Amino acid sequence: MGKFAKMLYMIDLLNTGNKYSLQELSKKIGVSERMIRYYKDELAQNGVFIDSFKGTNGGYFLIDKVHNYININKYDIQLLENVYEVIKKANFEFVEKYEELLNKIKDMNDIYEEKSKFIDGIDKKDINEVNNTLISSIKQNSKIKIIYLNIDGTYSKRTIHPLQFFKYKEELYITAYCELRRDIRHFECKRITLDKQ
Q1: CATH no., domain 119-194
Q2: How confident is the model over 122-143, as pLDDT tens digits?
Q3: The CATH number of 3-67 is which of 3.30.310.50, 3.40.50.720, 1.10.10.10, 2.40.110.10?
Q4: Is residue 187 helix, strand or coil?
Q5: pTM over 0.70
C-alpha cells in the first residue's frame, strides 16, 4: 500500500468508533509511530481531524465519522482466496490486480470486525435502558443528552459522544467526549440518567 492508501486505512480503522493507541495503529498499518503522527497532521490539514487523549484508556479517535461499511464475511473471503489460487495457477493476465482487490476486501472485512470491540467489557447484567442507549449511540455514531450525578451530589446536564465502555474496580464506565467540558471524560454508568426532554 502506498502512503495515500495507508492514510485511508487509518481513517477506516478510526471510523469504526474505536480508539487506538499509537502503537496499535503503527502495527495495524505497518508504519512507524512517527509516520502515524505525520498522517494525523496531514489529514488535519485536509479537514479530517483525529483527536487523542491520554491515560489508561487513551488513544486516537474520530468523533465525526466519515462513511459507512460493506459487510463481508469470512466465507466470502475464503471463496475469493480460493479463486485467487486458481487464477494464479492458470497465469491469469490480471492476477496482480485481483490480488490488490482481494487485499482491499480483506482490509474492509478487518474494519467491520473492529466495529464490535467496544462492547467487550459489558456483561449481560450490565444491560439496562441507559447502557442500551449508550450502545446504540456508539453504533450510530450519535450524541446523547444525559443528566449526570456528580461526586459532590449535584446534577449536571451533559451532551456526550460515547466512545467506549470499560470497567474499573468492577464498576462500568463510558468514555465519551463531553460538549460541556469540551474534552474527553469518563462517566460512571450507574450515575447516568437519560435526559428525555
Answers
A1: 2.30.30
A2: 666 777 899 889 988 887 878 8
A3: 1.10.10.10
A4: strand
A5: no
